[in-house]
Write a structure and sequence with these properties.
The protein is built from 14 helices and eight strands. With 327 residues, it is of the alpha/beta class. Strands 2-5-4-3-7-8 form a six-stranded mixed sheet, with helices on both faces. The chain folds into two domains: 158 residues, Glutaredoxin; 97 residues, Serine Threonine Protein Phosphatase 5, Tetratricopeptide repeat. The chain starts with 5 loop residues before the first helix and ends with a helix.
């Protein structure tokens, strides 16, 4: 058994930085999104009101947050992908003098609305246990999804297309909250049960996958780790879901736990269709590098770099160097 609750909280340590905000007025899926309050925008100009008919993403971040540096380029990709159909708004409680140099350093990798909004940040951070954290708000100003920004690709696309299942997402949101409530305990069985309840509703949920990975590590259970990536039949996976599963799987520090056949299958799904996303191409490139298919990895990275999106050129350069070493 674990000696202290902090070891449970470490389950999501790689994805978020913990913050301590009261949950008294936590924002729930289905409620009207609160206004951002007084906000000073340092990039992107002034966004539309949250109920002005355009889908909005409100994301909590900070300059000192390591995981935020990973999600920032991803948000930029989503803004470029969806264009005027969405407005992504990153808010922090830090002051303008603190965030302006950071935003300038990030350059094109942080290309959406960015603001210092202490009042709005504190409102949206109620009940949030770690950042980065995002809310998707529909055109009427209703909160329809909340969670880690790296897991919002498919919900965002569905909300924009009008195909999103709000009732199902409400149940998933409640399951996530129930899981988070177990993190302060030493009860691995309770955590595992709550995580199973979440994954039964959404087998590709990023939080559920992350917790499942950590539980498998604690229990030294390679079979449980591999089973996490087999829960959804291939024909039911979207390219985005496959890419997220690939990224989670390939981030594991022990390569002997990673099943090559599953990596190959997910890589194929990730780039299916005529217009594979840059993120999907990069995930597939990582997969083929893992499998030893260096030429295929380089080819995928080249396709991604042509889009000139954040991270693509760096991946291409890195793979070129690796390939050269093996020639």
């Amino acid at each position: 058994m674990l000696a202290q609750p902090l070891r449970i909280l470490a389950i999501l340590g790689a994805l978020t930085i913990a913050i301590a905000i009261s949950s008294a007025d936590e924002i729930s899926v289905g409620q009207q999104a609160p206004p951002l309050g007084e906000a000073t925008f340092v990039k992107g100009g002034e966004p539309l009101a949250l109920d002005a008919g355009t889908v909005s993403v409100v994301e909590l971040w900070a300059t000192w947050c390591g995981p935020c540096r990973t999600s920032i380029p991803h948000l930029t990709q989503l803004q470029k992908q969806h264009g005027d159909d969405v407005q992504i708004i990153g808010i922090t409680r830090e002051d303008v003098d603190t965030i302006t140099p950071f935003v300038e350093e990030m350059g094109d990798e942080m290309d959406y609305f960015v603001a210092s909004a202490p009042e709005g940040y504190d409102i949206y951070a109620q009940g949030v246990r770690g950042i980065p954290f995002a809310y998707i708000i529909d055109g009427s100003g209703t909160v329809v999804w909340k969670g880690h920004p790296m897991g919002m690709d498919d919900p965002l696309a569905q909300i924009i297309a009008g195909t999103f299942d709000g009732e199902r997402e409400g149940a998933i949101s409640q399951a996530r909250e129930a899981l988070e409530a177990t993190f302060q305990s030493n009860d691995l069985e309770a955590i595992a049960a709550a995580n199973e309840a979440l994954l039964s509703l959404n087998p590709t949920d990023s939080m559920g996958i992350g917790v499942g990975i950590r539980l498998a590590e604690i229990n030294e259970d390679r079979a449980a780790f591999r089973a996490l990536f087999q829960r959804t039949p291939d024909e039911e996976l979207t390219a985005g879901q496959a890419g997220e599963l690939l990224s989670a799987m390939l981030s594991h520090e022990n390569p002997t736990w990673i099943e090559p056949a599953r990596v190959s299958a997910l890589a194929t799904i990730t780039v299916e269709g005529e217009a594979a996303s840059t993120g999907g191409l990069l995930a597939a490139a990582r997969a083929h590098h893992f499998l030893g298919n260096l030429e295929k990895a380089l080819s995928l990275a080249e396709q991604a770099s042509e889009a000139n999106e954040p991270g693509a050129q760096e991946m291409h350069t890195w793979l070129s160097e690796i390939t050269a070493l093996h020639q």
